[in-house]
Structure formats: structure tokens, C-alpha cells
Amino acid sequence: MTTDHRKLLTVICEAELESRLAQDVMRLGAHGYTVTDARGRGAHGVRDAAWEATLNIRMEVVCEAQVAAAIAAHLRKTYYDNYAMILFIQDVEVLRPEKF
């Protein structure tokens, strides 16, 4: 089985940013993304989705390394100072590279 290397950029942040992040990642070269609801505890306390202000999302983007780096840099510059957000990047192997 042949695989190709890509990066998985994961963004966990306040749900109110979803539409803005979706526009950002597509504009910066991603071919798509996946969004799921997220809950947890961290530096900003418990994010349990008990009310709208505590809704979090997890956005995942599989893409080329340079696209992941560009998206991460933009998100850090644009959102880190004013929103609860974490980013991490992992190496992944994909079976259909043309999709990413």
C-alpha cells in the first residue's frame, strides 16, 4: 500500500469562530475541513457547552505542510490574543493524496 505524507492541523476554539475559520482555511489553500463539537477543560476553565458562550469546536484540516504552516501562522496572528484557541500539527499519511 502506497501512502503520501500530509499534515493534520487541528484547531480547537470557540464555536463562534467557525464560519470565519472556514473562510480562512479555504482562502489559505486547504481543500476542505471537518468540524466537530468539542468539550474539555484548560487554561480558560471548563468548556462544557452548557450554554452558547461555552461552545467549542474542533476543526481538522489535512493539507500540505506549507498550507498547514500558513494557516497556523494566520490563526495565531489573527485570533490568539482575543479568543480561546489551541492549534497543533501532526504528520499523517493519506491514501488519496489528490483530495488534500
Instruction: Write the CATH architecture name.
Output: 2-Layer Sandwich
Beta-sheet strand percentage?
35-45%
Strand order of the largest sheet: 2-5-1-6
- Report how far apart the termini are: 18 Å
Order of helices and strands: EHEEEEHE
Q: Which shape, going by the Cα principal axes?
A: globular
Main beta-sheet annotation: 4 strands, antiparallel
Nearest-angstrom radius of gyration?
A: 14 Å
What is the chains' assembly state?
single chain
Alpha-beta content class? alpha+beta
CATH topology: Alpha-Beta Plaits
SS field, number of helical segments: 2
Could you give a short description of this structure?
With 100 residues, this protein is an alpha+beta fold. The chain has helices spanning 18-27, 65-79; strands at 4-14, 34-38, 40-42, 45-47, 56-63, 85-94. 25% of the residues lie in helices and 40% in strands.
